[in-house]
């Protein structure tokens, strides 16, 4: 029984982050695609930089909303790994927290290199 509680303490926050990350991302993508179709604009073939994305969002363009949906999709595993690290530290599992922190660093470096 002692093993069940730490497992639940770890899986619940992680599941919440993953489920809501997917839901928000899917909703943004759907709204962005609908806006793009209504506005008659074309979508980008690659993710624009943050300043361009913000400009498109402020202009009310569907492509900006699609780009934001993609960013949320990319950020979801990062948020999930962060949740796992914090939960592991809270329940006292330093080894798994360290392993997940290494995975989190790899995700962050990969995202940063992809942004270049």
Q: What does this protein look like?
A:
There is one protein chain. The chain is an all-alpha fold and 116 residues long. It has one domain. Helix content is 84%, strand content 0%. It has four helices and no strands. Helix 1 runs antiparallel to helix 3. The longest helix has 36 residues. The radius of gyration is 18 Å and the shape is elongated. It starts with a helix and ends with a helix. The mean pLDDT is 88.
Shape: elongated
Distance between the termini: 48 Å
How many β-strands, per DSSP?
0
Domain tally: 1
Helix content: over 70%
Contiguous uncertain segments of 5+ residues: none
Mean pLDDT across all amino acids = 88
Please give the count of helices.
4
How many strands, which pairing sense, and closed or not: the largest β-sheet? none
Using the CA coordinates, give the radius of gyration.
18 Å
Order of helices and strands: HHHH
Helical/strand content category: mainly alpha
Strand fraction equals under 5%
Sequence-ordered SSE layout with sheet pairings:
Layout: H1 4-39, H2 50-58, H3 62-91, H4 94-115
Helix pairs in contact: 1-3, 2-3, 3-4
Quick tags:
single chain, 116 residues, mainly alpha, 84% helix, elongated
What is the structure about, briefly put?
The protein is mostly helical and 116 residues long.
């Amino acid at each position: 029984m002692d093993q069940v509680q730490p497992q639940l303490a770890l899986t619940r926050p992680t599941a919440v982050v993953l489920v809501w990350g997917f839901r928000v991302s899917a909703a943004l993508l759907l709204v962005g695609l609908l806006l793009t179709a209504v506005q008659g604009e074309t979508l980008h073939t690659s993710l624009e930089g943050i300043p361009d994305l913000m400009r498109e969002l402020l202009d009310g363009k569907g492509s900006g909303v699609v780009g934001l949906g993609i960013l949320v999709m990319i950020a979801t595993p990062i948020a999930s790994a962060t949740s796992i690290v914090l939960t592991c530290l809270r329940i006292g599992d330093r080894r798994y927290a360290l392993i997940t922190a290494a995975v989190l660093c790899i995700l962050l470096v990969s995202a940063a290199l992809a942004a270049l």
